[in-house]
Amino acid sequence: MDRPLVRGGEFSDVDAHDTNALIAYLDLATDLSSHDKRESYRAQGIGPNMHVLDVGCGTGDDVRAMAALVGPGGSVAGIDPSSAMIEEARRRGVPSNARFEQGAAASLAFEDGAFDACRAERVFQHLHDPAAAACELYRVSKAGGSVLLIDQDWETLTIAGGRPDITRRVVHAYAERLASGSAGSEHRRWLRRAGFTSISTHAIAAMPNLTTAFSQFLNAGIDYALEAAAIETNDAHEWLLSLLQAEAAGEFTCAVTAFFSLARR
Q1: Which helix (DSSP H) or strand (DSSP E) does residue 104 occupy?
Q2: Would you write out the chain's pLDDT as a tens digit for each of its 265 residues?
Q3: Which of 209, 208, 203, 211 is nearest to 257 (CA)?
Q4: Under CATH, domain 8-152+180-206+259-264 is a member of which superfamily?
Q5: The dihedral of CA 240, 244, 245, 247: what is its sign?
């Protein structure tokens, strides 16, 4: 099994790592979540003449999709702290009613009440100050505007097929390396303290096969556990081999809980 270079913790500082690999990772994640994305647009009621902000826009796929929904009377702004991501987003195309800018979630360069809808997908788990980012989303939202956060809680990651003690160490190492590894389950606290009073959260368990799980997070979890001396090299080899055998026997199970939190100001 080839091991890609992407590791989850690298998204806290994209430009310091292999940006091509991270862009490829985002493209895969977009393909895997296309249905959920469409549902999330509907949940926010994104439509004609709305002004929308996408925080952590990456390569801009959501911005381009929402630009078509809001039409010429609306606008969509995409921000990302990575200059490489913004460059790639612009290279892939900028609709006439959209723009891409480099910027940080905790210090948004927009006026108060500028947006009808704001979203941050798989962003808060990479933020060192997610509470400040939630406050900024409240500030730039119009009265009655919506904010959608989507994040996993990586402490909920469940893997069946390997030694349970090694599994626990790998899962913990992965969650610990992320800036806010349990972000999904913290959404409500951050949003409420930012000032939002109408908050709904629901959880969905994603169940990837071994190949997808390995490329998305298991390879990074192994590396982080090795770096933290939580496991030895022979433990990693034995654990991965047992997962491969479980997959071949139809006995591998993997699940992680993603939280979708919709708040209105």
Answers
A1: none
A2: 444 444 444 455 555 545 666 566 566 555 545 567 888 999 999 999 999 999 999 999 999 999 999 999 999 999 999 999 999 999 999 999 999 999 999 999 999 999 999 999 999 999 999 999 999 999 999 999 999 999 999 999 999 999 999 999 999 999 999 999 999 999 999 999 999 989 999 999 999 999 999 988 999 999 999 999 999 999 999 999 999 999 999 999 999 999 999 999 9
A3: 203
A4: Vaccinia Virus protein VP39 (3.40.50.150)
A5: positive
